[in-house]
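Escalated from tier 1: uridine-diphosphate-N-acetylglucosamine holo job.
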Amino acid sequence: MKVLVTGGTGYIGSHTVVELLNLGHDVVIVDNLYNSQLDVLDKILKISNSKDLKFYEADCKDYEKLDEIFKLEKFDSIIHFAGYKAVGESVLKPLMYYDNNLNTTITLARLAEKYQIKNFIFSSSATVYGEQQSPLNENLELKTTSNPYGETKKMSERILSDFSKNNKDMHITLLRYFNPIGAHESGLIGEKPQGTPNNLMPYVTQVAKGIREKLFVFGNDYDTVDGTGVRDYIHVVDLAKGHIAALLNAHKGLNFYNLGSGIGTSVLELIQTFEKVNEIKVPFEIVDRRPGDLATVYADASKAKKELRWETKKTLEDMVKDSWFFEKNL
Ligand code: NAD
Ligand code: UD1
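Tier 2 regenerated the structure:
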């Protein structure tokens, strides 16, 4: 099938494009390179041993430009990754986040309707659940999130839910990611944050590499196994495969799934695993909690397993190994 991947040169998008090409699908990427670089394309081709990958540099808010692309390409499916994702920045620049994350989704939905595209997959986040008891399952009511980024995901879900009521034959799938980490095992593609990383894993790899002196662990007084925050880490390659499963098992109407492992890991457990697997020290200091952080967040992953026939395969050991291999190659 012919798949439009918006944000396809980004972290999760690039890994998903590799999996699509591996299965012989035609892929067209649209990305404005706001948070990614063109050299990713060659790396994707190398990993997947393919020759065909079309790329358009375009802003997904630009209806006219995208309309031309849709007219020309005749897509069967859309996987929509394009968006901004930095929580802290969204607090400082809320309008920029609402504008980009909502208007890209609205533009793509308008074009999906105009060209009667069968499948539409959207990148949502576990953040839409707000503060609730884990394991988080898809039947829970969504709660207020602590930042504009989280609200853009909740609003996008609502927009696509309303849209689906008027487009009943379309397969619209919302995927709520837990904490993606890791990189492709080739070490060629992975996550390259600009400036100081906000998320745990890229910070850990930069400390291990000596780019930063130590990791700051945000709080050790949570009600968890060792007092540090617990999250559901998912290898980005497993996550990419989750999109393929969602594409192949999509059904009519609006459907939503958690993509997580169902396993909670604390910050200290992650550091210890990283040190053991990679045989390298990660100096750290315990500091105050980060505002807006929750103690424990992990998925009930059973719905995706049952309906999409997908579950995570890679372990925490795989995740820390691949993250480190990618960082070392940078
Ligand atoms: P990323 O920043 O690596 O990739 C996003 C890509 O979208 C980038 O290449 C960027 O240049 C592009 N982009 C942004 N705005 C655009 C626009 N207006 N037009 C065209 N291209 C645009 O991010 P990622 O980690 O790969 O995340 C992909 C999606 O998954 C995002 O929507 C993100 O919010 C969501 N998500 C990510 C995480 C995570 O932890 N990485 C968790 C939950 C949800
Ligand atoms: C954050 C975002 C969430 C987003 C997700 C993935 C917030 C409040 N939430 O989630 O919306 O979907 O990233 O992009 O920002 N930690 C440290 N030191 C660090 C960094 C993190 O101790 O330098 C701890 C955190 O307190 C947390 C865990 O590590 O317990 C994971 O943090 P992080 O990688 O930022 O992800 P989330 O907070 O789950």
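The chain has a mean pLDDT of 97.
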